[in-house]
Amino acid sequence: MYSCIVFDVDGTIIDTEKAVLSSLQKVLKIETGRNYTFDELSFALGIPGTVALERLNVTHIEQVNKRWNEYLKEFFHYVRVFPGLEETIKELHSLGITTGIVTSKTKTELINDFYPFGLNDYLPYTICADDTEKHKPNPEPLLKFLKIAEVSPSEVLYIGDTYYDMQCAQSANIDFALALWGAKKVERFQPTYQFESPKEIFEVVNR
């Protein structure tokens, strides 16, 4: 069915929720003096950090975002690849399936947070937040992916964990699969597929 599988990163390939929200809590406590809960900050998962800080009415966004990324390193021990994803990505690559990522991370964040796991060589096509003017849920990141990978929307399945991911895919006329291992409040989604395990991806790819 699909000859190209595209992944989101945070919440889809790697579990970064605790690290991202803990470091955001810390920087906001220092900048604003306020203690935010994870529930109050969960909206920040899946969008660029600068956008999240803007919504929190933070001043000096670029400086605070840089500090947030520094604090993230303190919590990096919480970050892990979701079970089954490493094997799945490597097998897709070996089958000749076109693979890549479309993420709200900047290139620097991707290098710092994702490259240490050694999967980037198996995901040759990459669109980061600084590759496009508009970001998820706007379709521009996926539309740019189509261009650089030279694939058509009907060939592509985008796998993500947030409502922003689904909106981005649907606006680009690309089928969307919800990664249940990372998704929250799944009742609000209307995906093409819901995957409980990464191995289910093989049921829909062209072998």
UniProtKB/TrEMBL annotation:
Give the organism, scientific name: Aneurinibacillus migulanus
- Entry annotated with the keyword Repeat: no
Q: Which InterPro entries match?
A: HAD-like_hydrolase_sf (IPR050155), HAD-like_sf (IPR036412), HAD-SF_hydro_IA (IPR006439), HAD_2 (IPR041492), HAD_sf (IPR023214), PGP-like_dom2 (IPR023198)
Instruction: List the NCBIfam families.
Output: HAD-SF-IA-v1
The name this protein goes by in its record = HAD family hydrolase
| Annotated GO MF terms | phosphoglycolate phosphatase activity
Q: Is Transcription regulation given among the entry's keywords?
A: no
UniProtKB keywords: Hydrolase
* GO annotation, biological process: DNA repair
GO cellular component terms listed in the entry, alphabetical order = cytosol
